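Dear support,

I submitted the protein below through the web form. The confirmation email said the job was done, but the results page showed an empty box. After a refresh the structure appeared. I'm attaching both so you can tell me whether what I see now is the final result or a partial one.
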Amino acid sequence: MIETRNLTKRYGDLIAANQITITLEEGDVFGFIGPNGSGKTTTMRMIATLLNPDYGEAYVCGKSIYTDAREIRRLVGFMPDFFGVYDDMTVTEYLEFFAATYRIDGPARRKVVEEKLELVDMGYKRDAMVNQLSRGQTQRIGLARVLLHEPQVLLLDEPASGLDPRVRIEIRNLIKRLGELKKTVIVSSHILPELADVCTRVGIIEKGHMIVDASVDEVMRRARQRIMLQIQVKDRTEEAAKLIESHDGVEELTIEKGIIETTLKKEIEDYSFLPTMLVEGGFQLTLFREEEVNLETAFMQLTQGLVQ
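What the results page shows now:
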């Protein structure tokens, strides 16, 4: 559905996007992660045919951004971080106006507007003035707008930026539903943990370079340099800690609020020896778990904090 090959954009000496290569299939939800100024928006605008690259190629549904821009714009719904609204329109009038620009006429126009309002859970605001909506409601109306013409590809630039936690969760769930509807979605964000639940793939971009492009599980695997365990025993915590620390496979150990936090050496992948050792030592385990690497931790491990 989306394929880019060495997509590059320069602004003088600044390389905003440097040989970006991505391949996405139908139903993929691609989390595009990076700090502000890393090249996310530039890449998305090139895919949407709103910005001409200096080098490289991109295809949307098999159509080239160079020769088939008009067709691509019919296939793509692009939602920028901030977009203007018309102050003197109701929500329904606003969406019907844009439906008309897609040449959706007559009863079909009202029907598609109602369908998209229900999809984004904004049917109860159909008669509200657009300029009276909250930031979160405006974002959902913006998403309804880009869905009016049933695009196969959605490019969502920071859709949850500036929203409160509840609305971010609602936007996240909506993006997940779009993937289930077989839309191909690129969603850029710096709100890292929330993307792990909705994305099938993750791309991490830094200073214009794509440094990671993999499944969420693969990103976590790369980021996990060493296994970290949380262990708790019923009593004699200090003694249990000394026993654990005596093993050659343990690199570091601390005790925090009665929990023994244990870091194993890099080469250790099987840690079944630890519970066995503790039970044989007469300790009763009340907690034994591996600390999970989340997307935010992965981002910090895999990037250097560089910006343009």
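Response: this is the final, complete result; the empty box was a page-load delay. The two ends are 29 Å apart (CA to CA).
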